[in-house]
Amino acid sequence: MNGRLQQWSVFVVCLMIVLRTESFFVDITYVQSAVAKGAVCLDGSPPAYHIDKGSGAGINNWLVHVEGGGWCNNVTTCLARTKTRLGSSKLMAKQIAFSGIFSNKPQFNPDFYNWNRIKVRYCDGASFTGDVEVVDPATKLYYRGARVFVAVIEDLLAKGMKNAENAILSGCSAGGLTSILHCDNFKALLPVGTKVKCFSDAGFFINAKDVSGAPHIQDFYNDVVTTHGSAKNLPQSCTSRMKPSLCFFPQNMAQGIRTPLFIVNAAYDSWQIKNILAPGVADPHGLWHDCKTDIVKCSTTQLQTMQEFRLQFLNALSGLGSSTSRGYFINGCYAHCQTEMQETWFRGDSPLLYNKTIAKAVGDWFYDRSPFQKIDCPYPCDKTCHNRVFDQQEYPLV
Ligand SMILES: *[C@@H]1O[C@H](CO)[C@@H](O)[C@H](O)[C@H]1NC(C)=O
Ligand SMILES: *[C@@H]1O[C@H](CO)[C@@H](O)[C@H](O)[C@H]1NC(C)=O
């Protein structure tokens, strides 16, 4: 090969890598100014986020997406959390990969690629609802998630979000729940003229009994709300009607949210199957173990139980209300969080519902091009699913 041809080949190979790379790394930003406001992670460290700035026509558009990671429900589990990235910004990776809804390429993220895209790190353990003034000198635990939420939004407003034309609050899992719980608060913090909508990925956790008949998730959420002092920060339209801890469930509080809201959720959400329907305590002999790691390993009776769970999920979803400002994309998959990964957000082989990818359904809804309120047929009818298969080792018995 002559020199010119070699150079050209190297150039073409590099170009192909750049075009095909589905993710890139973004540095962490610590919100130091939050510390003086007492808006800190469980261990007292500053909150943090990752931001990739918008460009061109997207320069005044802001996507604020909240990271997930379950909850801590008492001193023991919250203390354990301070030893992880989910309780301390000191332990967070300095860079994380952006893809899917965070992608900066139109071919991977057609409607939001040029927006300001922010991933807010989760480090309070209560979906950003906690606010306890007192810090126990023995444990030194800070329950301040609600303050963290406001401090992060204020920091982003100062960085240019005060000029936002379009803004979305979104999130995955516990962050998806945050995007529902804080939707109206987010809208209220933004300028009056900003078009604001919220969108929850895998955050519609339902109040279902576990396979032993116990109200496991209801008791767990009650502990979370009590430990973190969350009651005063949950939507008042709900807490005025029922016990605050029940207002952690979207089925009870989503209808009272005034800002437009979109729900993306698998009907057989793998986190919910593992932790709400068949948690370890409800399955002492581990009969559900294989089924929870891979849906194709479920027995006929287990699948029947999961079909009943789907019906409970759809019944709970009616708590969203039927207004066309509501959108939903409920696929019949065994999955959890489908927006942050390229393969489930927008790619040739991504999940489809009525021929639309999640990215297209959400984009069309946000820009008022078309509403989207669709529910998939029951498992195993949908051949576009990316059903999760969990590694036996990575899979903790909860
Ligand atoms: C804290 O919560 C965990 C998980 O639900 C539970 O196993 C443990 O017994 C609780 N600890 C205390 C001290 O209440
Ligand atoms: C989806 O698109 C394919 C190919 O474009 C078409 O044949 C099919 O009828 C569409 N299905 C639905 C449900 O719209």
From TrEMBL:
Alphabetic keyword roster: Cell wall, Cell wall biogenesis/degradation, Hydrolase, Secreted, Signal
EC top class, as a word: hydrolase
MF terms in GO: pectin acetylesterase activity
Principal subcellular localization: secreted
GO biological process terms, semicolon-separated: cell wall organization
Claim: S-adenosyl-L-methionine is one of the keywords in the record: no
EC number from the UniProt entry: 3.1.1.-
Signal peptide range: 1-23
Gene Ontology cellular component annotations, sorted alphabetically: plant-type cell wall
Subcellular location per the Swiss-Prot or TrEMBL entry: Secreted, Cell wall
InterPro entries: PAE/NOTUM
Known role: Hydrolyzes acetyl esters in homogalacturonan regions of pectin. In type I primary cell wall, galacturonic acid residues of pectin can be acetylated at the O-2 and O-3 positions. Decreasing the degree of acetylation of pectin gels in vitro alters their physical properties.
Family affiliation: Belongs to the pectinacetylesterase family.
Name of protein: Pectin acetylesterase
Organism: Sesamum indicum
Gene coding for it: LOC105158177
